[in-house]
Amino acid sequence: MDEGDIPQEVPASEDYRGERENILRGHKAAISNPQVSKEAKERSKKELEAYDEPYDASQASHGGKEEGQKDPGNVARGLKASISNPGVSEEAKQKARDKLGKLGGGE
């Protein structure tokens, strides 16, 4: 194999061409992430404004729930998964059954 057959390295300028949607999605995620600093959130808001995409928290996919509030459907699915998982102890399965019963999810 001669050197002509070896693929050349892609220049850095060509390697990363962030698609607009992905860039916007990343900034929106940063704003929504509670572990991101206020300064970083402000930078992301400014970037979104530069793209004419102001961020509206009320339209975020998870914006309808208060922080710390869990989706009962997801909780029930997780409990059902625990009950059917062979790697979960019988004690843990029983606790999951009890919680599921309290949710009204049945088995």
TrEMBL record:
Residues 14-24, 38-49, 90-101 have a biased composition (Basic and acidic residues). Residues 1-107 are annotated as: Disordered. Pfam families: Con-6 (PF10346). Coiled coil: none annotated. This is Conidiation-specific protein 6. It comes from Remersonia thermophila.
